[in-house]
């Protein structure tokens, strides 16, 4: 923070304290800013380190138990889930993106943005709504039952297939969104290049468009894989054990924090292996988007082909968004008076308060981080910033464990130091502060990417022009950066707000005792199988979730 | 028989006519060029020939066989027409060798490798086969795009603003190189550009387009010296129109004196016409009776380009050897030295 003070405040006045050589003064002055960046990265590093060090000192008894009873099933389940969901989102996301980006068919403009709507619905909400729709007592089977002798032929929704379908429907928009943008900028051109080299449109898709869009598609798949690994609420609804539910059970059912730590460290290893694989697979190729020329016109799908395209898009939208929302609305309206109680208001208030606090805190830290990285630009600082934002890849259950352990340790130290003993067992443990720490580690990347994108639109010449006019240091931040960044800051706050609102495992595992929020309420009710009681809080979460989806569709619409 | 024939081709977007009854013919081995400002429809003509746009009316024939009309179209990928795209559209995920070999699916592995190597030799990039597009300079990428389009030996090559992404000096050098490569391969090609220097450097036949219409389809020399429409006269090269009156079957009286040669036949004595004077038609001559004021001057090394004001107040341009250095405001003697009379009836 001292850096700019050592520079002349205007071009013409002599620098204060000019006696010391400017080079040394500058090098010294850089360090406070660097230390601040390193300190920010600690919020992510400490929880991760806590979890990872546990794998350095494995407890043989715990491992014996894990290897024998838990791990084989957990690994098999996780692998099956990742493969199935990847296949599902590729099929749904890529085909819809290709249709919308390259062809013209009835309703294309509407579907182009509407197919992003499922982003607003957390997977765990979609999960219990779908189970409610398709289970034995649900409306579909009830409707069909009179026409058949028995319903044994009807597929069981609470199965692995059902889970994979629900997760694919919940997560396909990540792939759809990225693939659509990639295809929109180069899909039709790719077909033309192919045709000029003698390839039919079908060959053009497989040999050009798909390989060229691969990095975007893989980026979307990576997001989906991370979401699936981190998912807690959906697998809980389906009673499908993965690492996240195992960590939760180890801690809150078996009361073995050590087992939870060991499981968490395994999950982190999986995440990093996936990240490395993705990096490695890119190799030396560059995927900059070529093309300043106007995109080629869309290819019309006429007759039944056009209606088939509309039909496929409608079916996905219906299953992933419309039907579940209708089902939630039905449940909520059936005993609205009962559900819209004083308790509900309290849950909603806590959710809003928590999300708002987290949004402001994360955005502020993200702003400081982005500003310091830009001003310093050195390798250490950039590395620290990358580490600080890696938390988004770390599942919430892991961070909950990783934050709890050091906070508990700090509490014990404080209690011993202050000689509180006896009656006091916690200082920070189970407070909002501990929750916010975990949220910051998890969502700093969300805020940072929005702020950083806005920061990158401010050119070096803007900086230089301001300095040339005698504005520098923190004055530069609030006179030049803040006004130019306001859009990016708003986006960052909105994104974090909604993410915290939807967040389930961290809230569940680190909240003050009995401090239920909307998402915790959804978990409590769905874990009892009381779908209808979870409907109203779920609807509230979906409505808030619509905000960034609409924002996103307005920003990126390539119609 | 011409290799490529466009017969009265029309195309429109909605109500707007993009191409209006355009006809042209290109012989085998010739390089043609469509020249015009942006939005004149030249790129759409190229896309119609490639098969990316349907025709509203007319016909396109390749080697005497119809490939496109309002009724029937040969699909783009079956036309054997290559294209170099404006942004090159190289595949970023493929190396140079893989890019160039992309259209050679029908060949055996070894035949493909030989053909790719030969094409890279032709464009002078034999050493860059393993590189990826982003590792090359703009000019090198352009040559990869050319090699990729030429590799399958297309019957016709289309080039869409091929040099517009390059620096000016690189543009000039590459347009010469590309012409030599196309000529050495005996390729028939059409390019589209808004730059007349590029058109003149590359093409055997140039067509000037405006508002979807082909104004004239001729050699660069003819376009410059015998423009058939006022638009072409204005668009190609520099010059100024000066009014005159037809005084005889072969003569026109101008402010600068009477000029006689083969007068265009469509005029009759007494007609008022506008005569195009190119800068090299107006010669500095101290002995001349006709004087003009120097309004402005641009130094061009071996010569000055003077803007001169005639007694009537009209201005003309004159190219004068640069040792005749006159100050602005000075009156200098000039005379006409016309070889081709370019005149249009006054509107």
Give the SSE string of chain B: EEEHEEEHHHEHEHEEHHEEEEEEEEEE
Helical content of chain B stands at 10-25%
Helix and strand content put the structural class of chain B at alpha+beta
Radius of gyration of chain B: 24 Å
Descriptive overview:
The complex is a heterodimer of chains A (559) and B (347). Chain A has 21 helices and two strands. Chain A has 559 residues and is an all-alpha fold. Chain A has a single domain, classed as MetI-like (MetI-like fold, Orthogonal Bundle), CATH 1.10.3720.10. In chain A, strands 1-2 form a two-stranded parallel ribbon. In chain A, helix 4 packs across helix 11. The radius of gyration of chain A is 26 Å and the shape is globular. Chain A starts with 21 loop residues before the first helix and ends with a helix. In chain B, the strands form four sheets. Chain B has a six-stranded mixed beta sheet with strand order 6-7-8-3-9-10, sandwiched between helices. A five-stranded antiparallel beta sheet of chain B has the order 13-12-11-14-20. In chain B, strands 15-19-16-17-18 form a five-stranded antiparallel beta sheet, with no helix packed on it. Chain B starts with a strand and ends with a strand. Chains A and B meet through helix 6 and helix 7 of A and strand 6 of B.
């Amino acid at each position: 923070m001292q850096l700019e003070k050592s520079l002349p405040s205007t071009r013409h006045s002599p620098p204060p304290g000019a006696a010391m050589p400017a080079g040394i003064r500058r090098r010294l002055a850089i360090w406070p800013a660097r230390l601040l960046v390193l300190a920010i990265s600690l919020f992510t590093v400490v929880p991760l380190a806590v979890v990872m060090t546990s794998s350095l000192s494995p407890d043989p008894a715990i491992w014996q138990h894990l290897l024998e009873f838990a791990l084989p099933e957990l690994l098999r389940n996780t692998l099956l889930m990742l493969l199935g969901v990847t296949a599902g989102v590729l099929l749904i996301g890529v085909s819809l993106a290709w249709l919308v980006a390259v062809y013209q068919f009835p309703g294309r403009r509407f579907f182009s943005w509407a197919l992003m709507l499922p982003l607003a619905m957390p997977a765990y909400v979609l999960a219990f709504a779908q189970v409610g729709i398709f289970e034995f007592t649900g409306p579909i089977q009830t409707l069909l039952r009179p026409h058949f002798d028995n319903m044994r032929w009807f597929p069981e929704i609470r199965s692995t297939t059902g889970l994979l379908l629900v997760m694919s429907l919940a997560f396909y928009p990540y792939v759809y969104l990225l693939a659509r943008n990639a295809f929109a900028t180069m899909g039709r051109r790719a077909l033309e290049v192919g045709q000029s080299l003698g390839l039919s449109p079908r060959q053009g898709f497989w040999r050009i468009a798909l390989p060229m869009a691969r990095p975007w598609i893989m980026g979307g798949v990576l997001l989906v894989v991370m979401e699936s690994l981190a998912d807690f609420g959906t697998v809980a609804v389906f009673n499908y054990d993965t690492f996240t539910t195992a960590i939760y059970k180890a801690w809150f059912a078996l009361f073995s924090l050590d087992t939870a730590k060991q499981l968490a460290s395994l999950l982190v290893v999986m995440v990093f292996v996936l990240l490395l694989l993705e990096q490695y697979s890119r190799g030396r190729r560059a995927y900059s988007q070529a093309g300043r020329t106007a995109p080629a016109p869309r290819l019309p799908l006429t007759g039944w082909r056009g209606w088939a395209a509309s039909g496929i898009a409608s079916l996905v939208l219906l299953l992933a968004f419309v039907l579940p929302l209708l089902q939630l609305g039905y449940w909520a309206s059936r005993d609205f008076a009962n559900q819209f109680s004083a308790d509900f208001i309290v849950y909603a208030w806590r959710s809003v308060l928590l999300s708002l606090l987290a949004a402001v805190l994360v955005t502020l830290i993200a702003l400081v981080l982005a500003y310091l990285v830009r001003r310093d630009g050195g390798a250490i600082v950039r590395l620290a910033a990358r580490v600080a934002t890696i938390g988004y890849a770390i599942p919430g259950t892991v961070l909950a464990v990783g934050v709890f352990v050091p906070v508990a340790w700090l509490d014990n130290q404080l209690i011993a130091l202050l000689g509180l003993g006896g009656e006091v067992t916690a200082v920070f443990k189970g407070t909002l502060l501990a929750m916010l720490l975990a949220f910051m580690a998890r969502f700093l990347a969300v805020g940072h990417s929005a702020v950083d994108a806005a920061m990158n639109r401010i050119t070096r010449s803007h900086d230089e022009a301001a300095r040339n006019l005698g504005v520098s240091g923190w004055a530069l931040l609030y006179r030049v950066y803040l006004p130019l960044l306001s859009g990016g800051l708003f986006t960052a706050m909105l994104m974090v707000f909604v993410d915290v609102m939807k967040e389930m495992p961290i809230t569940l595992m680190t909240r003050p005792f009995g401090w239920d929020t909307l998402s915790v309420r959804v978990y409590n009710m769905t874990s009892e199988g009381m779908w209808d009681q979870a409907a109203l809080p779920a609807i509230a979460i979906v409505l808030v979730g619509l905000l960034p989806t609409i924002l996103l569709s307005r920003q990126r619409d390539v119609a | 028989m011409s290799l490529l024939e466009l017969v009265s081709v029309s195309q429109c977007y909605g109500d707007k006519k993009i191409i209006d009854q355009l006809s042209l013919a290109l012989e085998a081995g010739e390089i043609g060029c469509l020249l015009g400002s942006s939005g004149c429809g030249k790129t759409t003509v190229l896309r119609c020939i490639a098969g990316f746009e349907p025709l509203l009316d007319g016909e396109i024939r390749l080697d005497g066989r119809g490939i496109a009309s309002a009724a029937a179209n040969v699909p783009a990928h079956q036309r054997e027409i290559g294209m170099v795209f404006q942004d090159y559209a190289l595949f970023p995920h493929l190396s140079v060798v893989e890019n160039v070999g992309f259209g050679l699916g029908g060949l055996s592995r070894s035949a493909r490798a030989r053909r790719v190597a030969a094409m890279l030799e032709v464009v002078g990039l034999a050493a860059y086969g393993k590189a990826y597009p982003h590792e090359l300079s703009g000019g090198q990428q352009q040559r990869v795009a050319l090699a990729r389009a030429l590799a399958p030996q297309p019957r016709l090559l289309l080039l869409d603003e091929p040099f517009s992404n390059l620096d000016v000096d690189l543009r000039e050098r590459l347009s010469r190189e590309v012409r030599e490569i196309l000529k050495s391969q005996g390729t028939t090609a059409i390019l589209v550009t808004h730059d007349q220097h590029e058109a003149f450097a590359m093409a055997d036949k140039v067509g000037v387009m405006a508002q979807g219409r082909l104004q004239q389809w001729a050699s660069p020399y003819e376009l410059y010296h015998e423009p058939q429409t006022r638009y072409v006269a204005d668009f190609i090269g520099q010059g100024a129109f000066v009014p005159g009156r037809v005084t005889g079957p072969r003569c026109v009286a101008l402010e600068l004196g009477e000029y006689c040669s083969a007068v265009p036949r469509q005029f009759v004595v007494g007609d008022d016409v506008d005569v195009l004077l190119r800068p090299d038609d107006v010669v500095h001559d101290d002995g001349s009776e006709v004087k003009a004021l120097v309004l402005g001057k641009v130094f061009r090394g071996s010569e000055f380009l003077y803007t001169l004001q005639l007694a009537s107040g009209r201005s003309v341009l004159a190219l004068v050897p640069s040792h005749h250095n006159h100050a602005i405001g000075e009156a200098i003697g000039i005379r006409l030295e016309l070889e081709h009379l370019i005149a249009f009836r006054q509107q």
